[in-house]
UniProtKB/TrEMBL annotation:
It comes from Cytobacillus oceanisediminis. This is Phosphopentomutase. CDD domains: PPM. Keywords: Isomerase, Manganese, Metal-binding. Residues 3-383 form the Metalloenzyme domain.
Length: 396
């Protein structure tokens, strides 16, 4: 029996990539880890340091396990696309589109599929579909990256919303289309929180739409992403159980247990319980999301407390791992809370691998995070992922 854990500390970058200027010039001074350490004097993460973070960031002595880092192969720095890459894809380069430029095309496509499409306001490029779903710009990401569909599940159940989302996805080349909603709101309330964030950027204020919480469901659709070539779907086809815990339950497609938890303590408790109770080969894909939220909040002290919590958990958990097991700890991009904006930063991410069979080796700088998905497939003797080069034979 073998188990593998992928623990993604969301947004934990270790320094700007060379091409950062092509994405955002301000990212070129980003170093999420070092700047948090400088800003919050109480950061205390000796376990991560000894696993290779110290060697990567500060030139300290090489650890007794495998370590390295990875570039982001996808354009920009995005949690959803980052996880698709980690799972074994290389998402296509998308384009930025605002609803003001594409609403006519989307309205026609939806009408052609039999949906009733209305404009609640003449002067706002926002669509209302079947009096149940609002289509607009995502106001929480960079302008033009994402189109949101926000629904009242009392009028449009989640499975119907996903079908609307698929039509939108087929007709727009933004990085993501997100379909979500809940049963404890109303379409009238959703419409009441539509506003303009930046000139021409119109959408629903999702936190105020009363969709989050009990009954909330979400479906992410990436541009040019082949989910069937990713580790979780390959595993599902071959009978390997994959637990998705934390944000991975939302951003990675798959089968098996899914726990869309945000609270870091609860994420780690569920991981440890699931790991202890699992009696067969299994993978655990886990995301610590609150670090990303702390980055968006530009709160280095909150970020540091979350890192301390994660490090303390790792210190207690690693000795409990069985002989055959593997854990890979990494990030999906950066989110430096100190550089004057609240967006993700294009940074290299650490890759730290541990386990009783893992040897001391530097796996170098990987060109794509898809190497991790490829490694997980080889670990479980599964067919290869669509993208990525396994480093399993280097580390065991």
């Amino acid at each position: 029996m073998a188990k593998a854990i992928l623990l993604v500390i969301d947004s934990f970058g270790i320094g700007a990539m060379e091409d950062c200027g092509e994405f955002s010039p301000s990212d070129c001074r980003a170093n999420t880890y070092k700047h948090i350490r400088e800003s919050a004097g109480f950061l205390n993460i000796p376990t991560l340091d000894h696993l290779g973070l110290g060697a990567l960031a500060d030139g300290k002595r090489a650890p007794g396990n495998a370590y390295g880092c990875s570039a982001l192969a996808h354009h920009g720095a995005d949690t959803y696309l980052g996880h698709q890459e980690i799972a074994g894809s290389c998402p296509k380069r998308s384009n930025k589109r605002l609803m003001k430029d594409i609403h006519g095309k989307l309205a026609k496509a939806l009408k052609d599929e039999g949906y009733r499409v209305e404009y609640p306001w003449e002067e706002r490029p926002v669509l209302l579909v079947d009096e149940a779903c609002v289509i607009g710009d995502n106001l929480e990401s960079s302008a033009g990256n994402i189109i949101n569909l926000t629904a009242d599940f009392n009028k449009m159940p989640f499975h119907e919303l996903k079908e609307v989302g698929k039509v939108v996805r087929q007709n727009v080349d933004t990085s993501r289309v997100i379909a979500f909603g809940g049963p404890y709101t109303t379409i009238e309330h959703i419409l009441s929180v539509v506003h303009e964030k930046n000139p021409g950027q119109w959408g629903v204020d999702a936190p105020k739409a009363r969709v989050y919480g009990k009954g909330y469901e979400v479906y992410h659709m990436g541009y040019g992403v082949n989910i069937d070539g990713q580790f979780p779907m390959i595993a599902a086809r071959h009978g390997l159980k994959v637990h998705r815990i934390g944000k991975t339950a939302d951003v990675l497609h798959g089968e098996g247990p899914a726990h869309p938890i945000v609270d870091t303590d609860q994420v780690l408790r569920v991981l440890e319980t699931s790991y202890r109770e699992e009696k067969e080969d299994a993978a655990f894909l886990v995301n610590i999301q609150e670090t990303d939220l702390a980055g968006h909040a530009e709160d280095a002290e909150w970020y540091a407390r979350l890192l301390n919590t994660t490090d303390q958990w790792l210190s207690a958990f690693l000795p409990k791992m069985a002989e055959e097991d593997l854990i890979i700890i990494m990030a999906d991009h950066g989110n430096d809370p100190t550089i004057g904006h609240s967006n993700h930063t294009r940074e290299y991410v650490p890759i730290l691998a541990a386990g009783k069979r893992v040897k001391a080796v530097n796996i170098g700088k990987r060109n794509s995070m898809a190497d991790v998905g490829a490694t997980l497939c080889e670990f479980f003797h599964l067919p290869a992922t669509e993208e990525g080069t396994s480093f399993l034979r280097q580390i065991l």
